[in-house]
């Protein structure tokens, strides 16, 4: 079969040759996608241009029992699908974009397809109302309840049709005796019909069609008849019914109260009088003043302006809209505090409505529908129809932010542009960049992703060149398997996390050899990967160094592993020996020698630890000697001193510190006399004072060099001798240093000595 999709004004005629399964039902979603429900439970989704988008299944049970009947419905959750299977069970999906199938309970006694049924949304729950003969049932997720419509009539044998209002508040039943029963849906969910709250609407009605006769039936006995020239299809809307035929599209709705007040014959409503007043004013007739006075005397001028503005919104002819708005503007002149927002907003809304109702566009929205769908949805519908220039003009006119308006529209245009396969990649990329530039809110990566989805990889890469954010470029490049380019972009960005992301992706995607070769050409990535391996994969790090013949780093790696991985002395020594070999290959004599000395020290520490039972392993040479001295292992300490050629000054410092810490003052004195001290004798004074033994410290003061003798006397507390020494040296700075240590009360005599000495120095 050939399927044809036309716009409201028959501007766009899209034909689709159907080659799939048997279609049971066709319906539109809220986002204007077309659903084809097949008898096997498969639902195919097409856009308004007849392009296939995706499909989904209503489940195995539907597949096994086949689809007898189906309906598309709308709710707060989105667009849904309800299926009646050959087993006479219902399956529902409330939102096709978040598919969750629900199998409704079995209907008792149902042996054949129900006479009629309809989907109802009540309290955010999907229900089905169905008729089986004259019996009426309500199904929800958990139960099936039989209900009896009040005042249905005893002569009714069957309910042949069911209809529910667009807002799911009203229900209409058509019976086999030709009657229509109407009631609030809530009548079935109240404990008592009399307790239900009545609707504010006083004129509910049903539109029905028989052949070419259209009837509007209300609660009264009056009926409105329309004789049609062709067969039509009725589509309910929030404020009326669309009548769609093969060559005509009409809209039937209740006349709004404001229009009734203004245009009703002999109407004395303030809006009608204001309209007449304006007409007379244009004729330069004094009747204009009479009409105005009549309105003002009743204090209804404000209401009159409101009625004219509101009536203008419901009119479809631009000339009549202008007439009503001029009348409202005329009335505003006589009101001192009329808020301008209402008039300005209506004027702007009507300009938008007239633009989309134009014969070249073909979206005949009514004013209530325009208010219901919001400006954002209207822009989406224009974009869906690829009416990009009009969309941008409306956004600019309505002062919609660039991020929500023009930028978003241009992004959609660009995504559509990349699908035009007849144009070359360079041309499309250049046109898109010329049009978009650096427009805020535009993501070139999203446009590139659409190009890639359309099979245009090279175009996607060209578009990514315009994407300023590397974090958006790299993931798509990886998806397109352009790993080298992704790595290059990540390194350019300077974002180490991004580089790590690419490197890890390459590691998982490539063979080991190719991965290492790729990193060889990218020093930054290689360095970061080495850091990663150092902490996470040491063995891989060794492989990297081996591949590069990097003997220096291999030596470092062996040293590191000897301390981090090896637990036995033999293992550690072996690892260090391997390090020596690598350092020799790298011609690093210093590193090789130091490592050999470490091996020697490690063996010595191991031997000492076994002999003494004390811990020596992993001490530095300095700490090893110091601990031997503390443990009175003087011979062993001196042996290390000789074997490792420890400098004399360092060894003397170690021995002085160790003997003082042991409080072995006698041995310290002997050591000071053993030979001339390479560090002098000030360290002996300092270490004794440090350990609070000024008595021992005084033994070494006389041996201290003249330059440090004053300082030594101060340290042991002999200020008098310090003054004499400083006076002999004629050093004013040393006298001042002593002066700082004196107090006027206890050191009065010393202070006098210092002052006399300073006076003598000044005289000379």
TrEMBL record:
GO molecular function: actin binding
Coiled-coil features, chain-numbered ranges: 274-301
Compartment(s) where it occurs, according to its Swiss-Prot or TrEMBL record: Late endosome membrane; Lysosome membrane
Domain Vps16 N-terminal residue range list: 15-345
Keyword presence, Ribonucleoprotein: no
GO biological process: endosomal transport; intracellular protein transport; vacuole fusion, non-autophagic
Entry keyword set: Coiled coil, Endosome, Lysosome, Membrane, Protein transport, Transport
GO cellular component: CORVET complex; HOPS complex; late endosome membrane; lysosomal membrane
Domain Vps16 C-terminal: residue ranges: 442-759
Family as reported in the entry's similarity comment: Belongs to the VPS16 family.
UniProt name for this protein: Vacuolar protein sorting-associated protein 16 homolog
Organism: Callorhinchus milii (Ghost shark)
């Amino acid at each position: 079969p050939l399927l044809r999709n036309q716009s409201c004004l028959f501007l766009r005629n899209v034909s689709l040759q159907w080659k799939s399964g048997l279609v049971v039902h066709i319906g539109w979603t809220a986002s204007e996608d077309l659903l084809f429900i097949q008898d096997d439970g498969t639902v195919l989704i097409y856009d308004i241009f007849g392009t296939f988008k995706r499909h989904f299944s209503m489940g195995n049970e539907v597949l096994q029992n086949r689809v007898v009947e189906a309906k598309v419905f709308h709710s707060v959750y989105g667009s849904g699908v309800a299926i009646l299977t050959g087993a006479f069970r219902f399956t529902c999906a409330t939102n096709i974009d978040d598919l969750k199938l629900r199998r409704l309970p079995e209907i008792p006694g149902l042996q054949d397809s129900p006479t009629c049924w309809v989907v109802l949304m009540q309290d955010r729950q999907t229900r089905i109302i169905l008729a089986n003969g004259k019996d009426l049932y309500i199904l929800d997720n958990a139960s099936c309840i039989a209900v009896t419509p009040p005042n249905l009539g005893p002569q009714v044998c069957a309910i042949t049709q069911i209809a529910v209002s667009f807002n799911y508040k009203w229900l209409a039943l058509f019976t086999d005796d030709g009657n229509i029963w109407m009631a609030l849906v809530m009548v079935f969910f109240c404990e008592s019909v009399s307790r239900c709250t009545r609707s504010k609407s006083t004129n509910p009605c049903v539109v029905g069609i028989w052949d070419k006769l259209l009837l509007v039936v209300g609660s009264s006995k009056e009926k409105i008849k329309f004789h049609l020239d062709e067969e039509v299809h009725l589509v309910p809307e929030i404020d009326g019914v669309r009548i769609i035929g093969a060559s005509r599209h009409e809209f039937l709705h209740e006349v709004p109260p404001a229009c009734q007040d203004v245009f009703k014959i002999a109407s004395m409503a303030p809006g009608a009088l204001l309209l007449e007043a304006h007409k007379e004013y244009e004729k330069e007739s004094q009747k204009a003043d009479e009409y105005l006075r009549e309105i003002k005397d009743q204090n209804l001028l404000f209401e009159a302006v409101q009625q004219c503005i509101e009536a203008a919104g419901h009119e479809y002819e631009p000339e009549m809209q202008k007439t009503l708005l001029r009348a409202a503007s005329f009335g505003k002149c006589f009101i001192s505090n009329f808020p301008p927002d209402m008039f300005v907003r209506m004027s702007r809304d009507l300009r938008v409505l007239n633009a989309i109702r134009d014969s070249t566009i073909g979206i005949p929205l009514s004013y209530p529908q325009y208010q219901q769908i919001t400006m954002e949805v209207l822009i989406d519908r224009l974009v869906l129809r690829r009416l990009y220039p009009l969309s941008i003009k409306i956004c600019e006119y309505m002062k919609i932010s660039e991020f929500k308006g023009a930028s978003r529209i241009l992004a959609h245009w660009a995504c559509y542009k990349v699908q035009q396969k007849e144009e070359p990649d360079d041309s499309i990329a250049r046109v898109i960049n010329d049009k978009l530039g650096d427009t805020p809110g535009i993501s070139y990566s999203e446009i590139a992703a659409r190009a890639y989805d359309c099979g245009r990889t090279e175009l996607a890469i060209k578009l990514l060149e315009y994407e300023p954010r590397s974090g958006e470029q790299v993931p798509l490049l990886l998806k397109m398997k352009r790993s080298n380019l992704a790595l290059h972009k990540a390194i350019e960005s300077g974002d180490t996390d991004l580089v790590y992301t690419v490197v890890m992706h390459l590691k998982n995607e490539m063979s080991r050899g190719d991965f290492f070769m790729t990193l060889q050409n990218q020093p930054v990535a290689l360095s970061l990967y080495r850091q990663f391996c150092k902490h996470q994969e040491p063995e891989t790090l060794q492989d990297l160094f081996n591949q590069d013949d990097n003997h220096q780093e291999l030596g470092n790696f062996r040293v590191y592993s000897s301390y981090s991985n090896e637990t036995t002395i033999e293992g550690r020594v072996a690892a260090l020996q391997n390090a020596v070999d690598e350092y020799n290959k790298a011609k690093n004599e210093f590193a090789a020698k130091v490592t050999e000395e470490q091996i020697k020290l490690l063996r010595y520490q191991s031997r000492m630890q076994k002999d003494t039972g004390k811990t020596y392993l992993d001490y530095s040479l300095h700490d090893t000697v110091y601990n031997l001295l503390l443990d009175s292992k003087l011979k062993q300490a001196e042996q290390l001193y000789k074997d490792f050629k420890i400098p004399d000054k360092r060894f003397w410092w170690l021995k002085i510190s160790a003997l003082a810490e042991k409080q072995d003052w006698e041995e310290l004195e002997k050591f000071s006399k053993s030979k001339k001290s390479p560090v002098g004798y000030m360290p002996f004074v300092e270490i004794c004072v440090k350990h609070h033994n000024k008595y021992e410290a005084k033994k070494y003061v006389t041996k201290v060099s003249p330059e440090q003798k004053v300082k030594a006397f101060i340290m042991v507390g002999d200020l008098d001798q310090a003054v004499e020494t400083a006076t002999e040296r004629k050093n004013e700075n040393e006298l001042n240093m002593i002066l700082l240590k004196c107090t006027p009360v206890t050191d009065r005599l010393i202070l006098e000595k210092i002052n006399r000495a300073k006076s003598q120095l000044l005289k000379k």
